[in-house]
Amino acid sequence: MINRRSTCLVASIVGMGLFGGLTARADFSIAVPNYSFENPIRTGGNVSLGGTPDSNNAISNWDISGDLFGAGGVFGNTAAQFASLPAGTQFAYLAAARPGYVANLQLTPSTNSLPSIVAGIGYTLTVAVGNRMDNVYPAGTATISLLAGNTVVASNFVNVGTVAKGTFIDLSATLDALTAASYVGQQLSIRITETNTMLDPTTNPPSSIRNEAAFDNVRLTGTGNPVPEPASLSVLAIGAGALLTRRRR
Fold first, then answer.
1. 21-38 mean pLDDT
2. Which residue has the higher pLDDT, 229 or 129?
């Protein structure tokens, strides 16, 4: 006979197996490679690594791409650009030179250490977007995107011209756990984009003028409880069944 005590014991064991160690993990941090663009080191000023601000330059762990005349690099901050930075002493910039043109910054696949999507977890990407004090160009539109493999699964954007000069704002994009369930097992990645959205009204016919924005302190957080894998559930069920059989004897 299975008494009440036995039933409660089995329920407790199963409960611990399913949920023990799976306590709520609200906003746990996920490390982002070179999140504040401290590598490569660039000391001070408006000339980016390897040449003029219009040069395409390397940023460790990040790939720079875009349309013709798209540019990106790192700056060592000075008081002429920002009084202070959200993180570290350097920031990244992206610039796009013509209407509709874009410049992209994306984690390098070969050094991307972000995890694959796990069932039951939601993910939030947050990037500090800035408008340099000494920026003489319109700021354009900055977009941040969270990717599962090559698919954009969450994104958000801001008109950088609405950000006060010499300051940063936090821009976030969230992939909720329910939507994330469709992408379980695919590796996360991050893309930052600057889009040229303005024309120079002083020329006839109109031609573009450079759009530029600054970026810093890239963060990724996860929220939720991992869902147990079917194999784990099977082991727990077998263990509970064995315990009940033993109690019957």
1. 80
2. 129
Fold held by 24-225: Jelly Rolls (2.60.120)
- Residue pair 105/59 in contact (Cβ under 8 Å)? The answer is yes
Beta strand 90-96 with 211-224 is antiparallel
Q: How far apart are CA 62 and CA 191, in angstroms?
A: 9
Residue 209: the pLDDT is 74
Q: At residue 240, what are phi and psi to the nearest 5 degrees?
A: -65, -40
At 241, which helix (H) or strand (E)? helix 230-248
Closest CA to 122 of 27, 189, 218, 187: 27
What's the whole-model pTM score? 0.78
Give every CB contact of residue 181 below 8 A, 6+ residues apart in sequence.
Answer: 119, 120
Q: Are the CB atoms for 139 and 157 separated by under 8 Å?
A: no
153 CB contacts (<8 Å, ≥6 apart)? 146, 147, 175, 179, 180, 183
- Kindly report the number of other CB atoms within 10 A of residue 7's CB atom: 12
How is the chain split into domains, by residue range? 1-22+228-249, 24-225
pLDDT at 248: 57
Q: At residue 107, what are phi and psi to the nearest 5 degrees?
A: -55, 135
Token code pair at residue 146: 């969270």
Among 172, 173, 174, 188, residue whose Cα is nearest residue 118: 188
Cβ pair 67, 98 in contact under 8 A:
yes
Q: Enumerate residues 6+ apart whose C-beta is below 8 A from 18.
A: 228, 233, 236
Amino acid at 116: S
Is the bond into 205 cis (omega within 30 degrees of 0)? yes
What pLDDT, on the 0 to 100 scale, is given for residue 4? 52
Strand 102-107, strand 62-66: pairing: antiparallel
